[in-house]
């Protein structure tokens, strides 16, 4: 599977983008610095972007024009779940026909009905059987906690990417909403790399601002995500062209992901400062050792003061192994302090809002 990175845009109706001119679409995408474009290929069990008057398929010249500019072409498909095999078959046919670089399944309210997990498994299983090497992404709601009925785990089991629709409608807080979306999916099993989709349309008197879009893009990079998408080309170029300009002018240079809290913890440990340790903890954090349980900032500060001053003064702490599962971290460590050593450090963090909410530690100091 080739990794997907950079800026991309969803196309709904080809004829509503650059007058339906394939060369104009490709040139606009190239000028904007897009690495990929996602075009609707089907709705339910039917192919779309076909001129019904002439029965002409509009995809081939657009796919060719984009490929000539070295822009990847993905197909996207709105699914209902009433006839999952028919929906899978039309997707497979369209993907194979145009040798598309990837496929996005857009599953929303219809898949919240009872019994849709079975439909999702049949649909995704059929896709994977026929397209074992094609990257597949799920496009759905931004906050899974709001939509527990959707068979998230089944879709993501077969998917390579998660493309949540982070549409901050009626608000102007894209950073907060994107961070929450990513955090919720990080706490879900299975986790798939997130490539979020932002809004560039108007609805009910609301529209994103230019500052919104810039904040969204900057947050994507700050989170170390590999790519970003927007919806949709059709509406943006006509209704909100200033937003297109912001996206086009934004230089895509992803920042490395921020250090994990375990790395920050060991940086602070080796500075031997209890105040620095407290910055990593939730104010009501619980710290558990084999000897006792303590809670709250003052008790945790006192524990680290004793550790640094009495138990392991001027120690050098070394992380030897770490594993991550959602909001949980397990890690092992050693320490050397004069003649005192620790060879069997074993800790677990529970993370909430980026802070340590609970911390279990177990270690033996030996001379």
TrEMBL record:
Superkingdom as given in the UniProt entry: Bacteria
Tell me the Gene3D superfamilies matching this sequence.
Answer: 3.10.450.50
Show where the SnoaL-like domain sits: 264-359
Q: What is this protein called?
A: SnoaL-like domain-containing protein
Which species? Bellilinea caldifistulae
Lineage, opening ranks: Bacteria, Bacillati, Chloroflexota, Anaerolineae, Anaerolineales
């Amino acid at each position: 599977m080739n990794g997907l990175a950079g800026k991309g845009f969803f196309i709904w109706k080809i004829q509503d983008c650059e007058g339906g001119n394939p060369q104009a679409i490709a040139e606009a995408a190239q000028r904007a610095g897009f690495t990929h474009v996602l075009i609707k290929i089907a709705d339910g069990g039917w192919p779309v972007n076909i001129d019904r008057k002439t029965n002409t398929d509009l995809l081939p010249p657009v796919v060719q024009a984009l490929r000539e500019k070295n822009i990847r072409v993905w197909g996207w498909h709105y699914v209902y779940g009433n006839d999952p095999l028919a929906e899978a078959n039309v997707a497979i046919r369209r993907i194979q026909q145009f040798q598309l670089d990837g496929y996005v399944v857009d599953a929303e309210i219809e898949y919240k009905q009872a019994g849709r997990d079975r439909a999702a498994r049949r649909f995704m299983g059929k896709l994977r059987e026929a397209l074992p090497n094609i990257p597949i992404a799920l496009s759905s709601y931004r906050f899974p906690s709001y939509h527990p009925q959707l068979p998230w785990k089944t879709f993501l089991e077969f998917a390579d990417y998660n493309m949540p629709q982070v549409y901050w409608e009626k608000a102007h807080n894209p950073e907060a909403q994107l961070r929450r979306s990513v955090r919720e999916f990080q706490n879900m099993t299975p986790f798939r790399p997130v490539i979020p989709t932002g809004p560039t349309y108007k609805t009910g008197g609301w529209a994103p601002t230019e500052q919104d879009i810039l904040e969204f893009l900057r947050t994507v990079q700050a989170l170390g995500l590999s790519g970003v998408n927007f919806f949709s080309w059709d509406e943006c170029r006509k209704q909100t062209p200033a937003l297109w300009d912001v996206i086009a002018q934004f230089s895509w240079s992803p920042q490395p992901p921020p250090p994990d809290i375990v790395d920050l913890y060991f940086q602070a440990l080796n500075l031997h400062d209890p105040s620095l340790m407290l910055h990593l903890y939730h104010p009501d954090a619980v710290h558990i050792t084999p000897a006792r349980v303590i809670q709250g900032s003052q008790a945790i500060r006192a524990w680290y003061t004793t550790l640094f001053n009495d138990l392991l003064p001027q120690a050098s702490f070394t992380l030897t192994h770490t594993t991550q599962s959602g909001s949980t971290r397990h890690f092992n460590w050693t320490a050397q302090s004069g003649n005192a050593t620790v060879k069997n450090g074993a800790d677990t963090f529970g993370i909430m809002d980026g802070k340590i909410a609970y911390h279990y530690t177990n270690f033996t100091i030996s001379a």
